[in-house]
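Bit of a strange request maybe. I'm writing a small parser for structure token strings and I need a real example to test against, not something I typed by hand. Could someone generate the tokens for this chain?
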Amino acid sequence: MLKPFTALFAGILALNAGGAVQASPQSHWGALPSSTDKIAVQQTAGTCMRVFDPSDTYANLRSTPNGQVMMPLNNGTTVTVKERSGDWSKVEYSAGRVSGYIYTKLLTSCTGTCMVVADPNDTYVNLRQTPNGPVVTRLSNGTRVYVYERSGDWSRVEHEWDRVRTDSGYMFTRLLAPCGR
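Reply from user aminoacidic:
Good idea to test on real output. This should exercise your parser:
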């Protein structure tokens, strides 16, 4: 009876000696990357991406890389990547039935990590334009948001009001909790 427990204990010690990963203080994050990491998404043909310009509310869809502006696409707009060419991605905007180019750094994954607003000391949390910047809106505790990246104490999130309107911005990471708990 003692032998199986000894083997288990020896296995645990071996893992720890080999540099086993310890739980982070933000262990509730699950698959979310650590601070300052971006969620890496390989942009291959057919990849769903969303427009996100952190310094503006839209990004320009252009006829060629750095070419003439065809139309602005609001932050949160979904596009499909057709191909990449240097720093530019050729995308298809299906709602407008148009193809064009967007600067690749202004695209983010369509899927984020589901979290809910959870401030134990208040009933809402501010969604900010930039970390510690101007307030975009207030979101009540329990509101579902999707986290796309973390930077220090801040998380870049999106909140979908309805099928048309999406707010993007930053929330203090400690005021978010995982969905479904």
